[in-house]
Amino acid sequence: MALRMGKFVAVAGVLALMSAPIAGFALEPSPREGKDSITADDLEFCLDASSFFRDKGKTEVRSGGLTDSLEEKQRSTMSELADLYREYPKEVGFAQTDGIPVVPVAAKELQTISSSIQKVNGEENTPIEMKAQDKSEFVSVSQLCQSFIKVHKIANKVDKYMFYIINPETQRLDVEVENGVPNEVVRELETDRLVSIAYTEPLTLLGGRLDDTSPYRGGGLPQKGTSGYRCSLGYKIQNIDSGKNFMTMAAHCNNLGDKWYYGKKYIGYAITQYMVQPPTKLDIALLTGANYSPTIFRGSGGSTARVIGSLPGGGTVGASIGVSAGKSNKEFTGTYKGNQFTPTGCANLGATYCNLRAVVLANNATLQTSDSGSPVFAYTSNPGQVYALGTVTGYYYNYNKILYTDIEALLHATHSRVATS
Known about the structure:
The chain is built from six helices and 26 strands.
């Protein structure tokens, strides 16, 4: 089953990025060639920055075999909105999606856009409405994405943190900048009428697993939204068909669309849950929306290792393997016990997960709840290199017997490979 990686869409208030600090700053001319022009690549980057992956024709199957038809309708609607943004970036604005999506449309283009909107509306989809706006109040997808690209380039050249987010409710780009940002940066931002600036106190970086910086590494411990709930990152993988990159997490930590952060640094959202898609039932979800590293944390987060590939079947039974535990903030060593369940490696851990492998941690060590999703890896003779084996799912009876999901099963299900660069 290969993932089709072609449908991305912006949704209300979530097109967001956080800059990584880069020393030095030099303003560049705006890339705009015209008042309302944007290149196809820039438009796609803008839509991809924090968007929902929508795969037409697939139904999410919940535990118990129930189909979430509302979610399926919403997915279809968002796919059509994405197509609308791409086809008419100058004629439509970002939809306000609190309830029935409302698409701002330039008044003079209303008749042209009506036919496209009608294609979206139908029995199987959530209705989409149009809202005609005159020239003085209308802001197009193209215009807001131009502003987004401009701010993104500025943010990548300053040594202060900037958080920036497209707000469809106000049709503006909300930019939060750290106090002390250079005056020339502020002046450049103020020249854009679509940018709304707010100031914040300087961020204190904890570093390591608790506050990683882009590109984000496996074994880190981000937070879900503002809930305080944390789970561990696993491995960067790459879809073979599209070349797009993703980061793994435990599926039981995620619902579709959950967004994860280090403080205000956005690190991605869950595009699906493979644990609830028979026959795979894998406890691995995929994140997209940020840059990810082909490395994992080692030890207590003070060092890293590059992932140089994956090993099928979990390696050799009896071998010593490692766990880079995010919540525990340490590296555990254990003995690989292989598949101790049915031929498909399935076990009931509150829900039935398959393709599970077992490792017994040395010295009766145990993991913590938020260690779910942490990388399980095979050592090499080079401490700076490891092979991916899987990601932590839970324990079974004995607290030091840890079950992890075989990474090869995920790679097969998604037609992907472990990213090594």
